[in-house]
Amino acid sequence: MIESSNGSLQIEVLDRRTWATRSELETAIFEWIEAWYNPTRRHSALGHRSLIEFEALHSAATTAA
Fold first, then answer.
1. Rounded distance, CA 30 to CA 22, Å?
2. Looking at residues 36-65, what average pLDDT do you find?
3. How many structural domains does the chain have?
């Protein structure tokens, strides 16, 4: 699984431009992981839902109970 995410990171972030500083690159990688990859990718352990979908369903179920 890590190879898949590394490949996506390479294509979607690293190969798109030249980074002026290491700090700029670190920020771009962090934003890609935390703002897009982790919240939107589907997880088989969560019934093939994204983290956002799963948390919304969990919150709704917890509030209703």
1. 12
2. 86
3. 1
Tokens in use for 16? Answer: 């798109």
- Joined together, the tokens standing for residue 64 give 């209703």
Tokens linked to 34: 């935390």
* DSSP notation for 4-43: HHHHHHHHHTGGGS--SSHHHHHHHHHHIIIIIIHHHS-B
Domain that holds residue 43: 2-64
pTM over 0.70: no
The structure tokens 């589907």 sit at: 42
Average pLDDT on 24-50 reads 88
Euclidean distance between CA atoms 31 and 25, whole angstroms:
10
8 Å CB contact between 50 and 61: no
